[in-house]
Specification:
Layout: E1 2-8, H1 13-22, E2 28-35, H2 41-48, E3 52-55, H3 58-63, H4 68-73, E4 78-81, H5 90-95, E5 100-104, H6 119-127, E6 132-139, E7 149-156, H7 163-186
Parallel strand pairs: 1-2, 1-4, 2-3, 4-5
Antiparallel strand pairs: 5-6, 6-7
Helix pairs in contact: 1-7, 6-7
Amino acid sequence: MKRIAIFASGAGTNAARIIEHFTDHPTVQVALVVCNKQKAGVLAIAAAHHIDTLLIEREQFLNGDGYVPLLQEKKIDWIILAGFLWKIPGSLLRHYKGHIINIHPALLPDFGGKGMYGIHVHEAVLAANVNESGITIHYVDEEYDHGATIFQARCPVLANDTADILATRVHALEHQHYSRVIEELVCR
């Protein structure tokens, strides 16, 4: 059984889709939800599915052991970022090399980097006046939104789009593809 930890900071819509996808899966289990915000919606989602949670503290995560010993104790094989807003520290990157993936709400390498998350990404896409956006699923490395691309899906940017309308279209792609791509990677 491959055990994954979902790292999330917010409402948890992608985390919920991933959890649902792997419920009763024969070879993959969502074993832990890791969060950096005490009131994040993802914690309630984890509780509703009887999944252990870990509320992490910034200093220990970024400058301490990165919670690697606890993740090892829980026998975590993969880390899946689903709206997690902190940069992943070197301790985790070294221990889980090639086993940490993220989803970004744009077509990388454009519209990525520090500060490019959520609605800010969609506003930047609209400001650039491009004709398409989408999602990028990628490995995580030392830089924001920089690791090797695993998968991209595209959607049009329409003339009357607002950032919220574009975000809805991009979220649909996230929900359609992220769990499937995770499954393909973890089950290799």
